[in-house]
Amino acid sequence: MSLGRPVWQATRRFLQEILADNNPTLRDNVELRRQAFVPLNTAKMHLPASIGDYTDFYASKEHASNVGIMFRGKENALMPNWIHLPVGYHGRSSSIVVSGTDLRRPNGQRLPGKGQPPVFGPSVKIDFELEMAFLIGVGNNLGEPIPIEQANDHIFARDIQGEHLNINPSFT
Hints:
It comes from Acaulospora colombiana. This protein is about 20% helix and about 20% strand. By secondary structure, it is α+β, with helices and mostly antiparallel strands. The chain has a domain at about 1-40. A hairpin with an 8-residue loop joins strand 3 and strand 4 (about 120).
């Protein structure tokens, strides 16, 4: 990814060419196909890159409000500056895993009810939200912005994850 957009484009063109129906290189070479491909039932997912860091933004008003209610109450749920610039925070990159990875329900302190002391234990709700991810292939120098016109030269890949739901899952 750090080699830049010209290398990304050349690699994509090569893969499209070699995988095309009318290209005999792989199509007609059983041994090369055996070396190049892994049977789907034995394939193992991997993270596409070492993720050194990430920033998460409260880009949805509803999500920002839901989180704000948890920390500041309903009256002060949305921070005043949110409507001008969505709030971002530093995320823990070690929490990024491959799809399908079994997850352990997080433990923490919570209030079981009004007037009751806090208890420690597994979470009782899991929050799913819409997430959009960008893998940055070529970064920028510290303090130098990337003009929007040059974004395609820096964004290697992007993806959109699932919907925002508050659920009480049945697993523990």
